[in-house]
């Protein structure tokens, strides 16, 4: 078998990998936000209402990074 | 540049025949981005008024919201019936747990109409993504999220400039408590984050949630149809799995629709609150 033999070939666009990478960061981030909120509610259950609102704001900001990742896929494939 | 195939010779040889299907085998057609640009139905060829079914859907949704709220609040009773009760519950949710919670009674009253409108428009337009027969969210093309984000953008800048123009810009661009020489770095970052990234992320968050939701559902259900109809035989077992996932994700999409409407309204309120805030 010489060096030029191609055993496996993947067709497609390398930009798809980008969303996978951007999802890692957002996934970890959302996990931390939710985890910390659960910890705080366990400490002070009476603050649950306010903490839930803060949690959703935190998730919304963190999650936006992953969605920018999807958007770049559609931008750069053209 | 990006379209070159990756030839990974180090991968296991088993992949080599897996990637080249026989020509007469049925081919699976997944969802594509073209789903969001259906053919025009009205005024075809007209540059300004050309309309496809997503745009028609938006108009229908606006009419639906109008009729629903008109019917729900037409004959108000002290002890609400079931329908009026549901409408009141929705309106009260926005008023109590979003607007008054963050803005307080006085400022809340001014911005309540805007935020209620944003909440219900986003909610109803998201929910069309899971209605059988429609199956596409009216928010999954950039126009609608962009309009809503621009409305939010104008609202919070207007709120800040109207109340205290200088304090608003100072708080936004020169946050207090930062050593003066750091303003060289901080001010551009704050400027971009406030005047560019806020509306962009508002738009993209909603748009991408809806696009991804649609793609996921179409992927699961078209895979189900493919396994069951095109392949048949033992593949029907696989179709049961994809059908179960598709159903699960339909419920997940309901959750996402409500959550995105909540988040959009909440963030608009937070931005207005930050613009109205006095000295930090």
Automatic annotation (TrEMBL), chain A:
Residues 16-75 form the V-ATPase proteolipid subunit C-like domain. It is found in: Cell membrane; Membrane. Coiled coil: none annotated. Its main location: membrane. InterPro entries: ATP_synth_csu_bac/chlpt, ATP_synth_F0_csu, ATP_synth_F0_csu_DDCD_BS, ATP_synth_F0_csu_sf, ATPase_proteolipid_c-like_dom, F/V-ATP_Csub_sf. It is a multi-pass membrane protein. Keywords: ATP synthesis, Cell membrane, CF(0), Hydrogen ion transport, Ion transport, Lipid-binding, Membrane, Transmembrane, Transmembrane helix, Transport. The record marks 63 as: Reversibly protonated during proton transport. The keyword Transmembrane applies. The chain crosses the membrane at residues 12-34, 54-76. Belongs to the ATPase C chain family. NCBIfam families: ATP_synt_c. F(1)F(0) ATP synthase produces ATP from ADP in the presence of a proton or sodium gradient. F-type ATPases consist of two structural domains, F(1) containing the extramembraneous catalytic core and F(0) containing the membrane proton channel, linked together by a central stalk and a peripheral stalk. During catalysis, ATP synthesis in the catalytic domain of F(1) is coupled via a rotary mechanism of the central stalk subunits to proton translocation. This is ATP synthase subunit c. It comes from Microcella humidisoli. The gene is atpE.
């Amino acid at each position: 078998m010489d060096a030029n033999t191609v055993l496996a070939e993947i067709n497609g666009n390398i930009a798809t990998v980008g969303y996978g990478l951007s999802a890692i960061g957002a996934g970890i981030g959302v996990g931390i936000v939710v985890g910390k909120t659960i910890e705080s509610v366990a400490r002070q259950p009476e603050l649950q209402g306010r903490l839930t609102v803060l949690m959703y704001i935190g998730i919304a900001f963190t999650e936006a990074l992953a969605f920018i990742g999807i958007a770049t896929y559609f931008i750069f494939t053209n | 540049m990006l379209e070159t195939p990756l030839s990974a010779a180090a991968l296991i040889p088993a992949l080599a025949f897996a990637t080249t299907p026989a020509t007469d085998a049925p081919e699976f057609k997944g969802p594509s981005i073209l789903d969001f640009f259906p053919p025009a139905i009205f005024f075809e060829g007209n540059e300004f008024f050309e309309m496809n079914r997503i745009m028609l859907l938006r108009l229908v949704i606006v009419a639906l919201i109008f009729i629903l709220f008109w019917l729900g609040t037409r004959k108000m009773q002290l002890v609400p019936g079931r329908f009026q009760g549901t409408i009141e519950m929705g309106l009260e949710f926005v008023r109590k747990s979003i607007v008054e919670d963050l803005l307080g009674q006085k400022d809340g009253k001014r911005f309540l109409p805007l935020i209620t409108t944003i909440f219900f428009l986003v909610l109803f337009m998201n929910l069309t993504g899971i209605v059988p027969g429609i199956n596409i969210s009216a928010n999954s093309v950039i126009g609608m999220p962009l309009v809503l984000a621009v409305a939010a953008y104008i609202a919070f800048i207007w709120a800040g400039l109207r109340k205290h123009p200088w304090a608003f810009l100072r708080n936004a661009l020169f946050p207090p408590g930062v050593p003066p020489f750091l303003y060289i770095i901080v001010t551009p970052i704050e400027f971009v984050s406030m005047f560019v990234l806020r509306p962009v992320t508002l738009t993209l968050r909603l748009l991408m949630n809806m696009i991804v939701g649609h793609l996921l559902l179409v992927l699961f259900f078209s895979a189900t149809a493919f396994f069951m109809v095109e392949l048949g035989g033992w593949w029907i077992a696989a179709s049961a799995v994809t059908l179960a996932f598709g159903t699960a994700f339909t419920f997940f999409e309901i959750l996402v629709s409500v959550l995105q409407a909540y988040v959009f309204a909440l963030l608009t309120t937070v931005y207005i609150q930050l613009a109205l805030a006095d000295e930090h």
